[in-house]
Design brief:
By secondary structure, this protein is an alpha+beta fold. The chain has one domain: Ubiquitin-like (UB roll), CATH 3.10.20.30. The protein is 14% helix and 21% strand. The chain has two helices and five strands. Strand 1 and strand 2 form a beta hairpin. The longest helix has 8 residues. The radius of gyration is 12 Å and the shape is globular. It starts with a strand and ends in a 6-residue tail after the last strand. The relative contact order is 0.31. The model has no long low-confidence stretch (mean pLDDT 96). It binds FE2/S2 (inorganic) cluster (FES). FE2/S2 (inorganic) cluster binds next to loops.
């Protein structure tokens, strides 16, 4: 359906194919992206799937609900464009998405 790019904190880039309807977290895990632990399996309960969305893409990733926002407040390296990747559902509109990985997860 499209491609997205994960950039590690070291600058190493990983371009992966995405499928409609899967979460950004699942795309990372399925492709062995280092730095996405996803300990809770996508339940918005661990904060270990934190990514920092490229400024140009933050609006395309959709809105943040209260649960995600609460979890993000506890996340090291939180930025203005932080998201929990398990809460971002991939679609054609995210073809080309670029996200950065923090140096540390929770
Ligand atoms: S996988 Fe646990 S909060 Fe996203």
């Amino acid at each position: 359906m499209g491609q997205i790019t994960f950039i590690e904190h070291t600058g190493t880039e990983h371009v992966v194919e995405i499928e409609e309807g899967q979460s950004l977290m699942q795309a990372a895990v399925d492709n062995g992206i280092p730095g996405i632990d996803a300990d809770c399996g996508g339940a918005c309960a661990c904060g270990t799937c934190h990514v920092i969305v490229d400024n140009n893409w933050i609006h395309a990733t959709g809105s943040i609900n209260a649960d995600e926002l609460g979890m993000l407040q506890l996340t090291p390296d939180k930025s203005e464009t932080s998201r929990l990747s398990c809460q971002v559902t991939l679609s054609e509109s995210l073809d080309g998405l670029v996200v950065r990985l923090p140096e540390f997860q929770m």
